[in-house]
From TrEMBL:
Pfam families the record matches: DNA_photolyase (PF00875), FAD_binding_7 (PF03441)
SUPFAM superfamilies: Cryptochrome/photolyase FAD-binding domain (SSF48173), Cryptochrome/photolyase, N-terminal domain (SSF52425)
GO molecular function, one term: FAD binding
Free-text comment on the cofactor: Binds 1 FAD per subunit.
Lineage: Bacteria, Pseudomonadati, Pseudomonadota, Betaproteobacteria, Neisseriales
One GO biological process term: response to stress
Keywords linked to the UniProt accession: Chromophore, FAD, Flavoprotein
Name of the protein: Deoxyribodipyrimidine photo-lyase
Amino acid sequence: MSVPTTLIWFRQDLRTDDQPALQAATRTGRLLLGLYVWPNDSALTARRRYFIWQSLRDLQARLAECGIPLHVRTGNPVQAVAETAAYCHAAEVVCAANGAGQGALRAVLEKQGCRLHGVADGLLQPPFQFIRSPYFNEPAFAAFQVAWRAACAEQYAAWQAPAWPPPDLAAQQKRLPENLKTAALPAVPRAVLTIPGGETAAQRQLAEFLPRLPYYPVLRSLPAQHGSSQLSPHLVFGTLSVRRVWAVAGNSPDAAAWREALARREFWRHYFRQYPDMLQQGLPEHRAAAGQANQVLMAAWQQGITGYPLVDAAMRLLRDTGWLPHSLRRFCAAFFCRVLGGRWQDGADWFARQLLDFEPAANSGNWQLAAGLGGKRVERQPFNPVVWSQKLDPDGQFIRRHLPQLAHLDSRRIHAPWLATAEVNTNGYPAPVVDYRAR
């Protein structure tokens, strides 16, 4: 006689700490199994795949301590979940709801006599509460942040993560049939990761960042100082709970800038949930102004050979690691749109293919802001990449680290080496592809 089980479908919540789907499944009292289905889309780069693999390996080990096997499938998610549910005689599938509806899966499972139970995760506040304006410029974000922060302060004033694991879970899981206990994790090709995947790595990184929190407001804008938390990949893939991140900062005034970054992250996800058409197309009043991409300039920007050192250093770091501090993301996006005259969609597509922590809402929103397209009118202030280079990397440390051919230049010349070619050897570093003053 088959024993009914509960299947936990892990999605972008690859952890055991503060894991709502895992907690909900435990409350059913049934035997538990885990499932992960590899995303089947072109956005799954080798780097992201390896990050997920590391996260699954860590998750599998943590679940094994409680006797919960983690099965891994590929293919169509609806089919993979339904087939696994049938194989393990699941009475219920529990997963994080993604906001897009799961009607097809629910219908298939109901035919099998299985219930689908979606739980909220990934956001501190549910969407459709705080977005009022169809625009997403700074005034719109400021209004959102006030209401959002007040709701979070009230809701999480005494927050504590549910205890895990329950004391009797491992003993209960010993009743799991032997044919369900075997769950191998297929190997994937290795990739270079400067930010390792997994819940263990996420918790270690969070602990290492917290002592630097008082310096975050200043150092986050200085890429040479490694001032950012680098936790965004863990939030994207769910190896770290956003509620945990909010709670560990406490009520310290040092956390204000960091919580603003969390608010910005949620703002984009709330906004594009409410206005999904804006994700790819932008605001209606700006769509007719979209131009054509200059392929030569775009290639120079992608390869880091524009002749503007901070842009090139940043784009090479992005290509080599899949990571950029957010100050450099804004800088490179503004340069692409305002100096090279590129379409924000083209730049956003390139970042989508490169970033380890790619998240559609944040990527699209920040690119449109960089292009000055967040309000009723085009809001394009003059953009001087040399001045911004001096602000973001005043001593040229970041540039020297990633453009060794310019390492011998002093902090004055390194931001505009074309002005010094008659005096010093720039080792073949290219001249600017465009004159920013002509834009």
